[in-house]
Amino acid sequence: MAGRDVPEEYLDGFAVILADASATGRRLTRDELDSRRALGERAAEAGYGLRALVGAHLAAARAHWPAANLASTDSVLAAVEQTVDAFAEGYERAQRQAVRQEEAARREFIDDLLYGRSDLGRIAERAERFGLRLSHAHAVAVAQGRAGYDDGDAVSREVELALIGRFGDRSILVTTKDGRLVCIAPGDQDEVLAFFAKQAYAATDGGQVAIGRPQPGPGGVVQSYEEALNALDLAERLELDAPVLRAADLLVYPVLTRDRQAMADLVLNALGPLRQARGGARPLLDTLTEYFASGCVAAEAARRLSLSVRALTYRLDRIHRLTGANPADPVHRYTLQTAVIGARLLDWPEKEF
């Protein structure tokens, strides 16, 4: 008998091998080993568990054990060992191939999902295989650290296991893309993305996480993902050091840069005269940046710039004389602050336009 729930076909020829080993004491031939590996592959592809298959081989060995007067115990046991080893090798080879195919399919799906380069209806169908129901709104969080990360490495596994341990199966997908950690979650489960941000921050040793807004449908994942990427890009250009950035809180910046030419005109008109200063525009532009970042508190701005308050005041006066706009005057402050943001977004004065 093959053993409970394991068909006889996966033990084909096993009894003959045992009898021959008992009679001659020989080891399995190459063809016999290859046939055992092939059977192991077929059993794995059919979905049978390795434990049940090994048990079936042991049961068959007991049932077909050669007669005592012919049997060489060592030879028969060696044949059983070789048979099971070759069978398990084929089984594991098939499993590795299945894993590789699954990983390739998962990576292809993720690339299509995040780039939106495939038919959205087809993406939605494939998504269910990976636990996502794209008929609902989803939001995407992206974590960026000092190093690049890949699926299966220690950092991504740590974050994924933490999420599974906390939330179980909640239609959450954790993956990597372009060296960043990515988490896709239902749009009404903000607690999932907040927990991901906390875990990713720790696992990446102080990396930065951006969270896109919930967006509906298969195309919504792409939109939320791009919002998160844009938030990370803004953080780098504006030197925003908050550990977690939400795209919803940064909407003013895309608005400011939507008309690039208008922003460039504002920067040149409001800040262009700073280029006349000794040392160029950069030191005075940095002064304005820190002055506004400190809430227009001169003492705090001076501390950030490693200047005395008197030196900072001199710089602010110099800015006033060159531009005609007083940073301390609320009427002028908005224009100057908007122009400073625009300068950082457009990389001025390093890039002229």
From TrEMBL:
Domain CdaR GGDEF-like per the UniProt entry, residue ranges: 116-234
Residues in PucR C-terminal helix-turn-helix domain copies: 284-340
- A Pfam family annotated for this chain is HTH_30
Tell me the protein family, please.
Answer: Belongs to the CdaR family.
Cited PANTHER family: CARBOHYDRATE DIACID REGULATOR, DNA-BINDING TRANSCRIPTIONAL ACTIVATOR ADER
The protein, known as: PucR family transcriptional regulator
Taxonomic lineage per UniProt? Bacteria, Bacillati, Actinomycetota, Actinomycetes, Kitasatosporales
